[in-house]
TrEMBL record:
GO terms for cellular component: cytosol. Its cofactor is [4Fe-4S] cluster. Signal peptide: none annotated. One of its GO terms (molecular function) is FMN binding. Pfam families: FMN_red (PF03358). InterPro entries: Flavoprotein-like_sf, FMN_Rdtase-like_dom, NAD(P)H-dep_reductase. Residues 5-147 form the NADPH-dependent FMN reductase-like domain. Belongs to the SsuE family. Isf subfamily. This is FMN reductase.
Amino acid sequence: MADVHVVAVCGSLRDASTTRLALERVLEAAEQVGASTELIDLREFELPIFDADRDRDEAGDAAELAARLRTAETILLGSPMYHGSYSSPLKTAIDYCGFDEFEDTTVGLLAVSGGAFPVTALEHMRSVCRALNAWVIPHEAAIANSHAAFEDGAFVDPKLEERVVTLGRRAVQYATIEPDPDSFESDQNIGAEGK
């Protein structure tokens, strides 16, 4: 598995982001089973709101973001739950990508919530990935009540940490899986081509 490259995208822009902490733990677990890893911190990218009339090469750092995602055998998407869905920075990042970055690529999902279980954020990310013909790992990681999930940057609950670690292992295990046929949604997704 030494040739597996796992790239995580953090959809949180907060300095004290629990999403980022969790993704760092996922990547650490992927490294422990032999993968090379990279964390894409969207705070470091200039990504204007997506405009389909603007070429990706003229949209800040969008072309660089897409190029870095294309190096991945597995992409991990991590987001806080905002208003029942995932974050707008992550949505913008995905909108600048398309089939070239996601089709037939393994994707793992992680969502964080300050309150209840962030199931709808996970569902929304899964739907978008399916529309891009990605193969989404069945195992997903969700962190509810995130303010109490960490202490000094470490997980408080070993069972929750194990769920997050498992996502890192599965990101490597399923990196080269043969994906299922294209989804119905992908046939309707012309916006993902050529941008």
